[in-house]
Amino acid sequence: MPRKPKGARLYLRKRHGREPVWVILEGADEVGTDCGADDCRGAEKALAEYIARKHKPDWQNRHPAEVMVADVLAYYGTNRAPLQSLLAIT
After folding, report:
1. Residues 72 and 38 in one domain
2. Is residue 90 predicted with pLDDT exceeding 60?
3. Over the stretch 62-85, which tens digit does the pLDDT of each residue have?
4. What phi and psi, each to the nearest 5 degrees, are found at residue 19?
5. Same-domain status, 7 and 39
6. How confident is the model at residue 10 (pLDDT cuts 50, 70, 90)?
C-alpha cells in the first residue's frame, strides 16, 4: 500500500563541500528557496508563496456548498473590494 503524501514542506538540504540550503519538498519535486541555513524566515516565506501559487480554486465546476469560505473571501479581497473603494470616491 502506498504511503500518504506529506504535502509541501521545508527541508534543510545538506550538501557535501557546500553550504546547506532550504528546499521545498513535495513528492518527488524539489524546489530551491535560495535561502541558506540561517534564513529560516525567508524559507518559510518561500514555502507560503509556493503553496499560494499552487492553490487555484475551481469556481465553475463546483457546487456553491463545496466552495471554501477562505476562497470566497480571497476572491472578494482581490477582485471586488478594490472596486468598492473606487465607487465610494466617485
Report:
1. no
2. no
3. 888 888 888 888 888 888 877 776
4. -70, 145
5. yes
6. very high
Other CB atoms within a 10 A radius of the CB of residue 12 amount to: 13
The CA dihedral of 14, 27, 33, 35, to the nearest 10 degrees, is -30
Domain match, 49 and 33 both: yes
The structure's pTM equals 0.66
For residue 82, what is its C-alpha cell?
478594490
Helix (H, G, I), strand (E, B) or coil at 39: coil
Sign of torsion over alpha carbons 2, 52, 14, 41: negative
Domain that holds residue 74: 58-90
The residue with cell 487555484 is: 56
How much is the pLDDT for 86? 61
Check whether residue 83 and residue 71 sit in a common domain: yes
